[in-house]
């Protein structure tokens, strides 16, 4: 059996590598390179959206149309809009970003571009943060339009500070993005990815306190709702409409939302494999 | 190596010399893509060793030095040619001007502002190839890069491949079209996960007495008395530095 030259080569190389210090650039240029890749990724995702103006239109117009519908369907009982308008301002960014991200990531996986990126010097975090920046920006635009409409012409009264309202909407959008990134790993087709919306978000929708206060639910359901991310999105919005100033509980809700976002980003990173079967 | 519950590339050993164009030929399903994925380091392997440019395949330090083109074009079809290339250039950390250079190299100058999804299949594939040329990688692994292209364009691309090899790059190019074999410096003929020949096109023809590579392939299949490889799992492949001293043959262990 002749000459597996590669074996001798690789053995000698590994010996050589052990003797030599690892070739790593210094920490600061590395962090800078990583930041540039993250920004390039965010810019690329936004360019993709820019080429698809209809999707942007749908993302921004549909929540507004739904809010207007809600207002006028319950025209006779304005209390209902006052009660459910604010939770919806938290639910829309989460739901929409979840859907957009899970489809975008699935496309990235199925088109082979994810595999290409992972053969390049792109960190998984660079990719995930790039998506988070791009969709976070989109979530802010969507929130700005929806807030403008709801607090202005539709006359919803919010006692808390507006910036905190934006902070919660942004956190909800990012949470949706992070959950979408994670969940898309379990979808093999776009049909499946779309089905994850009713499977993953609708139960939370029922349990988040929009229809019945969470405190009035069966204990088991209440416990479940306590661990559902959407509950905190809705709680934060409810507290913001009810109380003036910066409420400590809103901050706690915000921390929970950010925490779940980070956990799902980490889980999402685990699903990005450089080697596949 | 086991893939899909089936052992493929079992007891296979090969070496690819630098600065050459090596053709990987064989019928579809024979393991060409799996072998290429192993060299790029995106294939989960169940054993064996793949050394690329002196490092284990998939090593982080190789990510700038190896370019890979998958069979299906892997670029963003909803972006323009320039947007795609500039993004991949940014990820690789190479200057933006490199995007224009590679677009010209694959004959896409003037189409930079077109959205990739609206290009023809052949142009789409060339965008994917251009992305792999960014940063002048030392090793290019190209999985059927010329499928579906017209003959003029195919010749241009093969000329490009030879220019790249002349500049010191190593190219491993798969094809199931046997007539592309003569354009390679070196050939690896593959069948059922095994390399059945590893030689220059001229030497293969001389050895089998055939006039065309296709006939040589058939002759080799007939004479192939490969022992039963069910016992071995060792797979090793190397894209090594030095000159090829001797062609490595199947080594079952």
Quick structural gist:
Chain A has 277 residues and is mostly helical.
Features:
heterodimer, A: mainly alpha, 77% helix, 0% strand, globular, disordered N terminus, B: 253 residues, alpha/beta, 6-stranded mixed sheet, 4-stranded mixed sheet, disordered C terminus
Q: What would your notes on this structure say?
A:
Chain A: GO terms for molecular function: ABC-type transporter activity. Chain A: It is found in: Cell membrane. Chain A is mostly helical. Helices cover about 75% and strands about 0% of the residues of chain A. The longest helix of chain A has about 35 residues, at about 80-110. With about 250 residues, chain B is of the alpha/beta class. Helix content of chain B is about 30%, strand content about 20%. In chain B, the strands form three sheets. A six-stranded mixed beta sheet of chain B has the order 7-8-9-4-10-11, sandwiched between helices. In chain B, strands 3-12-5-6 form a four-stranded mixed beta sheet, with helices on one face. A two-stranded antiparallel sheet of chain B has the order 1-2. In chain B, strand 1 and strand 2 form a beta hairpin. In chain B, helix 3 (about 95-105) packs across helix 4 and helix 6 (about 200-210) packs across helix 7 (about 215-225). The radius of gyration of chain B is 18 Å and the shape is globular. At the A-B interface, helix 1, helix 2 and helix 5 of A face strand 3, strand 5, strand 6, helix 2 and strand 12 of B.
What is the oligomeric state here?
heterodimer
Strand content of chain B: 15-25%
Number of strands of chain B: 12
Structural class of chain A: mainly alpha
Global outline of chain A: globular
Q: Which stretches of chain A are poorly predicted, pLDDT < 50 over at least 5 residues?
A: 1-23
Terminal-residue CA separation of chain B: 13 Å
| Protein chains sharing the most extensive interface | A-B, 38 and 55 residues
Written as H for each helix and E for each strand, in order along the chain, the element string of chain B is: EEEEHEEEHHHEHEEEHHE
Instruction: Assign an overall shape of chain B.
Output: globular
Chain-averaged pLDDT of chain A: 83
* Rounded radius of gyration of chain B (Å): 18 Å
Structural class of chain B: alpha/beta
The overall pLDDT of chain B, averaged over residues, is 79
Total E-strand runs of chain A:
0
Radius of gyration of chain A: 23 Å
Q: What pattern of helices and strands is seen along the backbone of chain A?
A: HHHHHHHHHHH
Runs of chain B with pLDDT <50, length 5+?
Answer: 1-6, 228-234, 241-253
How many helical elements of chain B?
A: 7
Q: Quick one: biggest sheet of chain B?
A: 6 strands, mixed
């Amino acid at each position: 059996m002749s000459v597996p030259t590669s074996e001798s080569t690789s053995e000698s190389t590994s010996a050589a590598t052990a003797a030599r210090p690892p070739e790593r650039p210094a920490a600061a240029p590395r962090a800078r390179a990583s930041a540039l890749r993250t920004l390039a990724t965010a810019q690329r995702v936004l360019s993709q959206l820019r080429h698809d103006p209809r999707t942007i239109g749908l993302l921004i117009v549909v929540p507004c149309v739904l809010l207007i519908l809600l207002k006028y369907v319950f025209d006779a009982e304005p209390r209902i809009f006052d009660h459910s308008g604010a939770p919806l301002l938290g639910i829309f960014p989460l739901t929409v970003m979840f859907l957009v991200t899970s489809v975008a990531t699935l496309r990235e996986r199925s088109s082979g571009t994810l595999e290409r990126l992972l053969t390049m010097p792109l960190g998984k975090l660079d990719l995930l943060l790039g998506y988070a920046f791009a969709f976070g920006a989109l979530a802010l635009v969507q929130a700005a339009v929806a807030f403008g409409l709801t607090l202005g012409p539709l006359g919803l009264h919010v006692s808390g500070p507006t910036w905190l309202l934006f902070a919660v909407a942004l956190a909800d959008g990012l949470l949706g993005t992070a959950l979408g990134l994670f969940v898309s790993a379990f979808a093999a087709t776009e049909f499946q990815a779309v089905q994850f919306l009713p499977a993953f978000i609708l139960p939370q929708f029922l349990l988040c306190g929009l229809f019945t206060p969470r405190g009035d639910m069966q204990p088991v359901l209440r416990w479940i709702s306590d661990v559902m991310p959407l509950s905190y999105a809705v709680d934060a919005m409810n507290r913001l409409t009810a109380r003036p100033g910066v409420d400590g509980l809103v901050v706690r809700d915000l921390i929970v939302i950010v925490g779940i976002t980070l956990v799902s980003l980490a889980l999402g990173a685990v699903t990005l494999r450089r080697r596949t079967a | 190596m086991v893939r899909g519950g089936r052992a493929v590339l079992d007891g296979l050993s090969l070496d690819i010399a630098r600065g050459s164009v090596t053709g990987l030929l064989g019928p579809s399903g024979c393991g060409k893509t799996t072998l290429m994925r192993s060299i790029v380091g995106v294939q989960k392997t169940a054993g064996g060793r793949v050394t690329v440019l002196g490092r284990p395949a998939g090593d982080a330090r190789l990510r700038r030095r190896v370019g890979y083109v998958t069979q299906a074009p892997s670029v963003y079809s909803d972006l323009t040619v320039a947007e795609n290339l500039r993004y991949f250039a940014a990820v690789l950390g190479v200057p933006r001007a490199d995007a224009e250079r590679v677009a010209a190299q694959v004959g896409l100058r003037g189409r930079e502002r077109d959205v990739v999804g609206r290009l023809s299949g052949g142009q789409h594939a060339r965008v994917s190839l251009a992305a792999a040329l960014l940063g002048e990688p030392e090793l290019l692994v190209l999985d059927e890069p010329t499928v579906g292209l017209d003959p003029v364009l195919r010749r241009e691309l093969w000329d490009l491949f030879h220019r790249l090899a002349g500049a010191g790059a190593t190219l491993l190019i798969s094809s199931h079209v046997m007539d592309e074999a003569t354009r390679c410096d070196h050939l690896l003929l593959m069948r059922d996960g095994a390399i059945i020949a590893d030689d220059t096109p001229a030497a293969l023809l001389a050895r089998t007495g055939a006039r065309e590579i296709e006939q040589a392939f058939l002759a080799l299949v007939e004479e192939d008395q490969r022992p039963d490889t069910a016992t071995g799992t060792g797979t090793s492949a190397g894209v090594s530095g030095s000159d090829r001293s001797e062609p490595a043959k199947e080594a079952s262990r």
